[in-house]
Design a protein that fits this description.
Structural class of chain A: mainly alpha
CATH architecture of chain C: Up-down Bundle
Distance between the termini of chain C: 45 Å
Largest interface: A-B, 55 and 63 residues
Oligomer: heterotrimer
Chains: A mainly alpha (104), B mainly alpha (245), C mainly alpha (602)
Bound molecules: protoporphyrin IX containing FE, copper (II) ion
CATH superfamily of chain C: Cytochrome c oxidase-like, subunit I domain
Order of helices and strands of chain A: EHHH
Helix content of chain A: 40-55%
CATH class of chain C: Mainly Alpha
Number of helices of chain C: 17
Number of strands of chain A: 1
Distance between the termini of chain A: 37 Å
Largest sheet of chain A: none
Shape of chain C: globular
Number of helices of chain A: 3
Helix content of chain C: 55-70%
Largest sheet of chain C: 2 strands, antiparallel
Strand order of the largest sheet of chain C: 1-2
Order of helices and strands of chain C: HHHHHHHHEEHHHHHHHHHEE
Strand content of chain C: under 5%
CATH topology of chain C: Cytochrome C Oxidase, Chain A
Number of domains of chain C: 1
Structural class of chain C: mainly alpha
Radius of gyration of chain C: 25 Å
Chain lengths: 104, 245, 602
Amino acid sequence: MEHQQLSSAEISFAPVHRDDTVGVICILSLAKAFYIVSIFMHLGDEVRNLIMTIVVPLLLFVWFIAAFLWDGDSWRNLRKDYNKGNPAKQEHAAPKPASEGTLK
Amino acid sequence: MAQTAVPQEYKWWSGGKSPFNVSYGKLMMWYFLMSDAFTFGAFLISYGTIRFSQEYWPNPNHVFNAFPGAGHADLPLAFVSLMTFILIISSVTMVLAVHAGHNMDKKGVQKYMLWTILGGIAFLSCQAWEWTHLLTGYHEVLIDGKLTTLNTTVSHNPWGAHVEYNGQHVGTPGPVAFGGYFFGITGFHGFHVFSGVVINIIMYIMTTKDVFHNRGHYEMIEKAGLYWHFVDLVWVFVFLCFYLI
Amino acid sequence: MSNEAVLHAHAATGHAEHHEHHHHHESFITKYIFSQDHKMISKQFLVTGIVWAILGGLMSVLFRLQLGYPNETFPILEDILGKWAKGGKIQPEFYYALVTMHGTVLVFFVLTAGLSGTFSNLLIPLQCGARDMASPFLNMLSYWFFFISSIIMLSSFFIETGAASGGWTSYPPLSAIGDFSEGSKAGMDCWLISMALFIVSALLGGLNYIATVLNMRTKGLSMTKLPLTIWAFFFTAVLGVLSFPVLLSGAILLLFDRHLGTSFYLSDIFVSKTQTALPNEGGSAILYQHLFWFLGHPEVYIILLPAMGMASEIISTNSRKPIFGYMAMVGSLFAICILAFLVWAHHMFVTGLNPFLGAFFVLLTLLIAVPSAIKVFNWLTTLWKGNIRFTPAMLFAIGFVSLFISGGLTGIYLGNSALDYQLHDTYFVVAHFHIVMGVASMFGMFAGIYHWYPKMFGRHLNHTLGYIHFWVTICGAYLIFWPMHYQGLAGAPRRYYDISNWHFLKGFDGLNQFISTVALIVFATQLLFVFNYFFSMYKGRRLTTKNPWGSTTLEWTTPINPGHGNWPGEIPEVHRWAYDYSKDGRDFIPQTEPIGAEESHH
Ligand code: HEM
Ligand SMILES: [Cu+2]
């Protein structure tokens, strides 16, 4: 069994860490993805229309991602409202053991 | 890729030929990969959705800071960077295998396919180590006012926020979705790597048996290559979502 | 090696295969069972679809019996069904299993596999002028995955705890926790595994359809000369290839929640049956709904588009007029295809969906009315002043248009979130989707079968039986589903075992009996069609010409009973679009005829 002492007690709040670098990291990742597809997979060498039939449908991901994350964020806000004034449901609370029965 | 020069107003779409100048097999492979991108996309987007619905999410720099043989040294993301490097190198050797195939160079195809297969196996081994490390590493957390230890599984997460306890900073349990998605998605990716290795082994055997040589082209290697690079491509996003942000 | 080498190597093998076929004798197994001929695979899909349609229809008759006569007993049911109908009364668990399986079977097995599987397979190679699908082998696999998926789904009825019963949408937590209901036990696992295999089948099929339409069109057949059937099958395949994987992900996560203790969809759950609180925390049941409907909405268009394509073709042929607004028809199919991906959350307005987010979904949903209306007006203008031949296929195609209009209009009610808060999960929704999707697509399918049966079997279906089939079915469909709008508006909830307990719904008792009776009659009439189908295979009127309907498209240039490879000689070349009807004094001009020097433009 391995016990690990954390070196820093920094408390970081989600959903995303180090907000200032996230944008850069995402852009760099997309750049890497672009190079894998266009150089390694040779998509850059294909006929233009073939490229289009592959790239254009990927645009669906824009709304796919936006709507899902939007709703996820909305659940977080809803939860916050429900939990207000409910002492049994503090944030960061441990998973309730089955026997506690706060839900009865 | 060698593309014969075409006259200016060549009618790509007029029927009797591929409008994209590719075989149906390669076309199907591309579109299959696109649909697979939606499978992975759905997983990753679900992960993002749940993460957005949480107040707190573990910091990957704390979770992924171990390295085999380095004891308790704090080396954030060092090991996963090595894994990423292995995978990208195996992509490079795959590119070289495809290239050798274009030149009908059987020896070259064999050599680079072997390297690619090795790279895949190395990646899977690394992943096995990382999973084991998370599943068997217990960490001190505060639950209901008592200190206990938890490992990282699909139903436990010791990586919660830190709180003051007896003048000390101690951890609390974090969102269990972390483990579920981590093991679920890296597992699904690992499954793809595994099937890629199997495909590559089959390709190697077929090359050795001169199947492609007799066929007059090594397009199968190219299609296997597309699949292999796709696995690498997916890893970019898995890496981004679980380790970087 | 150049790309040319690959392309030509393939063309060469294609040729060799074709020539070989004349001498090569096929065994029973390769010809009828593990066939790689798209025409045979098409028939396999159709027959399996028909079997499923009978089973699925029978399920609806059984639960309509419960809904129409909640207080009566039918001892014969106990003899047949045993404990599921104890005392001659359908038990609640069984009722829910029936409703669930009815939906699943009809949506996926009949109207997806049975419709796309049959007609994409039959018509894509024939109307594109190809010898077969791009990959006949994967095409065969596509059927067999469907077959295995079918067997697993069917077998779930014979499990001790019964088939899945969480609705065709299988929402968690009901579907995730075995303690919640009998149908959430092993039956649910069967459902999930069966669906996963079905998705594999749909992907194999869809990829093949796309590759064939793009790569295998005959010389001269540019995309804009394609019949609308092919465009519709093409977009259907695109929808499936991009949305089925998302359901696969959702199903896998659900399986994990069921068996591995994950919390993807579960949080804060208390099981009253066992008096325990589950440890799951932080998941979201709504996430499953998002994933399900990301497929679910495209799925309804996967079901509808093939019917639209075939109706367009049949209406034009039997009006002896070119289709009105060909490019607008293609464009609206395209627009529907795109919008279908963007509107999934209109099924989730009442889940606590952020209202601001919901507003975008309302907007996108209502936009679908535009391409839908374009199609409707184009069908109507094609019929307008046409020289109409009322064949059974034509009647079903016109019936399709009527049903699509009726059901599409109620979609606009539901698409407004403010109205949907009232209407959601009532019989209004049941009426909407049965008319616009269920019955309309069945009509498209019937139209297709009556129209292309001669191509499949070299014989005609019996037309008299066809007319009876049509009139009873269209009247019955409206009589069954129209009144449900009123029930829904009055607040009758869907998916209830017995709504007669509510005083305010008492007034509907008689109506429910009426609906159930009509449902029984309509079901019996479908058996008439099944009889017609199998009878005509052996005894139907034989075809005397290659082209019984005077059609322009390529499938009618093949021999009456085409062999593997479709055309005995060279594949014909195409010179014109598919809709030169009543042109320059001629009844129709086949696509294979070169454009004459004097010809007018369309
Ligand atoms: C103008 C066009 C349409 C609009 C605006 C529309 C809108 C809607 C909305 C908002 C719902 C959700 C109702 C609820 O559950 O409260 C719904 C349900 C449904 N629609 Fe449509 N619809 C349209 C056309 C269609 C078409 C063409 C099809 C199929 C071919 C279809 C199939 C369905 C199905 C199957 C459901 C119910 C699913 C379920 O809850 O089990 N709709 N529609
Ligand atoms: Cu919808």
